[in-house]
């Protein structure tokens, strides 16, 4: 490349140039790679990436639609009442074994449970007894423990609430509440 | 030299629409509004041929 340049210096350019597209001063490799046309090409490619990225969401949505809206949930035991003092929380998984969730005992007979993957970027939300709120450690998102609604930080959607039943000294998870919106 | 920026401008708008549609798809998905998901997913997919068409039209314009 360097020798090439030297070569060019010593040679007297012909006047007028024996070309008509005025590209004689373009020497570097790939110098014309990012002209407008290839930039547009790149933008078309980006549109393609967006299109492909929505395919899985669409496919799963179609599957849900085809299956109908009657989802059934198992009734899972979460914990015994004696294992969760007032003001404390226990983690569990519901409905699948990878859907981590959090049960909080607010008062003697008041329980709240949410799927605790933060609605921002899926960090696990934990129960902060001192602050009385559900806290996401990643970007300090806060959720209202009574409603699951985000009250501070980046999250915009509420945490999905889990329906509970208390029977004979045991707390059960019976379903996941639908988002209403 | 006067050149046309229409291609780049229109493609930018298409990409903006892509971002909006993708965001809508994800939101609708988490709110379990699956019909909305499908609508926006299809819109997003349609953006690609549109972008390609704009490119074809504008690539040879100086
Ligand atoms: S992941 Fe929870 S605030 Fe960002």
Automatic annotation (TrEMBL), chain A:
Region (Disordered) location: 1-22
The Rieske domain, residue ranges: 76-173
Bias-annotated ranges (Basic and acidic residues): 1-10
Keyword ATP-binding annotated: no
Keywords, comma-separated and alphabetical: 2Fe-2S, Disulfide bond, Iron, Iron-sulfur, Membrane, Metal-binding, Transmembrane, Transmembrane helix
Database matches in Pfam families: Rieske
Record field: transmembrane: 42-62
GO MF, one example: monooxygenase activity
Record's keyword annotation contains Flavoprotein: no
PANTHER family: CYTOCHROME B-C1 COMPLEX SUBUNIT RIESKE, MITOCHONDRIAL (PTHR10134)
Name this protein carries in UniProt: Nitrite reductase/ring-hydroxylating ferredoxin subunit
Lineage of origin: Bacteria, Bacillati, Bacillota, Bacilli, Bacillales
UniProtKB/TrEMBL annotation, chain B:
Top-level taxonomic group: Bacteria
PROSITE patterns documented for this protein: PROKAR_LIPOPROTEIN
Keyword annotations from UniProtKB, A to Z: Membrane, Transmembrane, Transmembrane helix
Segments traversing the membrane: 38-55
Protein name listed in UniProt: Lipoprotein
Lineage: Bacteria, Bacillati, Bacillota, Bacilli, Bacillales
